[in-house]
Amino acid sequence: YIKQQGGDDICWYHTDIDEATAGSLQLEAELRIAATEGQFIPYYQPKFELATGIITGFEALVRWQHPTRGLLKPIDFIDAILTHKLSFELFSQMAVRITQQLSIWLQQGFCQHICINADAAEFSHPDFFEMVKNLLAQHDIYAQQLHIEVTESSLIQRHANVKKQLDSLKELGVFLALDDFGTGYASLSYLQEYPFDFIKIDKSFISNIETDRTQHAIVKAILDLAVALDMQVIAEGIETQQQRDLLLAMGCQYGQGYFLGKPVPVDIATEMLIQQYAPK
Ligand code: C2E
Ligand code: MG
Ligand code: MG
Ligand code: MG
């Protein structure tokens, strides 16, 4: 192939492309194995009621236990999941693990919910709703104990069925959260169009909230809007005590972030619950 092309520059150009293609084919093949062999595992990040410091639930964040590359974060593979149409496989695997874990925690007397992230591409799958419903029934979980977070950016693509699926989930009693609020193209119209219960303020609005007047004003406006719409607010990405105190003073009810608790493996999450529920 190189010989046919002649000149050196072109050779290298083609070699690079071949390598990129080979890399992407390998990633795709590995993701398919990951999907069938159960290499996707949830990490759990606690969600706190700011006023009391109580953990009210955990957000499940996917990690890929890669056979040779170690534990990978979503940024390393989430785009490829979408490209190769493996979203539903990812969601099913996470949903199975999460509902199993939730039922264990509930049996241990820990009153919790778990939030699962879902791309809008996952909702358009015809089996999505039935799968969620069956998992809840199978594990004796109230629909209210499962929250589903959808990012604004994934709603822009207007996948078929999204509205129908979200309405059905809402009817079932599952709580719905609009994730990364404020970073999409149509934040406000999504609130109007879909039946969300929670707004998650994106961390980009929290990072300098103590000093940045614009961030402060935006968060204040979101909190006011939520009250008017009878929705609850969760602030993401709280990294300092000052941010937490300020958000609490502003009337924000729930928060997540490295200052409060990082995403952790299941045994550490369980340990946190044991501490919380231990008699004082
Ligand atoms: P997200 O749902 O908005 O989750 C929050 C992300 O911010 C997580 O990154 C979390 O580890 C990180 N984070 C939490 N607190 C802080 C903080 O105080 N400071 C900073 N700088 N970051 C913080 P992660 O786990 O890498 O996930 C990235 C994104 O990948 C998630 O954003 C979500 O959109 C997506 N994702 C994660 N798990 C899944 C999944 O199972 N399915 C789908 N479809 N998407 C997922
Ligand atoms: Mg999320
Ligand atoms: Mg978010
Ligand atoms: Mg995000």
From TrEMBL:
Gene Ontology molecular function: any one: cyclic-guanylate-specific phosphodiesterase activity
GO biological process: regulation of DNA-templated transcription
Organism domain of life: Bacteria
Domain EAL: 24-277
Protein name: Diguanylate cyclase/phosphodiesterase (GGDEF & EAL domains) with PAS/PAC sensor(S)
Organism: Psychrobacter aquaticus CMS 56
Lineage: Bacteria, Pseudomonadati, Pseudomonadota, Gammaproteobacteria, Moraxellales
